[in-house]
Amino acid sequence: MWTLDLLISLLVILSFLQIGLLIDYYLITRRLLSFNLAVYFGLGLGFVAILQMIFGILAIPTTRYLVILATIITLVPIFVDRRLKKQLGDLTAKSLKKIKPQHVLGILTLLIFFVTVGMITFSHPVWGYDATQHWLAKARAFWIDGGITRANLFIYPPPDNPNLWSLNAAWIFHLLGKSSDFWVQIIPFTVLVLLVGEFFRIVAVSKQLIWAWVLLLMFTPFLWQTVSSKAYSGNADLLVSFYLFLATGALVNRRLVWGAIFFGLSALVKNDALPALIGFCLLLPIFSLQKKEKFPKVALILAIGLLLFNLGWKFYFGLGNRYLQNDWSQVLRQRPILEYTWYSIQSFREQFRFLFHWGIGFWVIFFFLITRFRRILRNKWLTLSLILIAAQFVGYIWVYYVTGEDQASQIATSIYRLVLQVYPALLLLAFTVSKYESSREFPTQFGYG
Q: How far apart are CA 77 and CA 222, in angstroms?
């Protein structure tokens, strides 16, 4: 029976990739395929979640038969569209030809790493409290009820948390025909594989210290433990990290449409990513005010559209916001803002030093961001990327100030998960400024070329 469940789970992953491929091919690049599995997977997850959210608004049930039909339909174009089939075959062959004998040892290391993490991950079901009592509990409710309803949004507080992760887990439950805390782990495991793979694809262009950068990311303890450890497996933070990484990669390479989409989808995973999305909407027009460049109307419309969809969703279902609805007079009177803010800043400083969470990752990040800071300022997209990540930290500190819980307890139980959200994006920025004076120097295949 487990063999069938494995095949179905792999089919789900394939369908997510295929959905993203179709969106890219028919809607974005207009029948010019740009082969990027990480981008496809991110798009596929986002589309499936938004589709179910729209179904929730329209009160259309999500059934197993509907999910099976949708999965089959996504696989049809690759067989009937000859141009798509040819481009996919050509790009696959081109990618395989890039593998040289000197790459074999590194690729073997990657495979051993992923097999080891996979064996640990699938040696247990999801066990963490947040995952089982919130994210996957909501997924079960969506699966049992046939989608989102006004009732099941409020079963597992806080109701204002976004649902992209839970909705994709429910999608797997529909195809499996059962709720499985075991096989649902295939989504975060795939995210880890694609995140490391995309980082490798980017740094491989430089042809210098490739494996030093890749090993630095893949052996970051808390990154792979988020997938393999039963205490953290099933949380939503890795998905936020994945989307912010893709958005940052798109932004520094001036792929603003992709940046808008991925910043928008990150905020549909967790509210934590709203500062970056709001900052992108506000700052993109300012950073685009140059006569020689075409104003990115499509990117701005997409970003604002996803932001309004996110906020409109909360308003439509009356989900509120547990932070904005605080008694601010009480907060300001009981919590000295400077002292609480300084405590949060010091907590982040200490977190960056924890080798058992981040290895030497943050030492490398801060070395390059500080020593190459002028290089960042010379390129507006690198500057914007860094500002948006800084906005994330401002958002984290603000939440720690206004939260109703004890600040020290809240920080102790969540700060490492918040840092994970921005860690791969920061490492990507560190690599970028270490190799290139500006994004105009990037080879054409860097990022999303």
A: 39
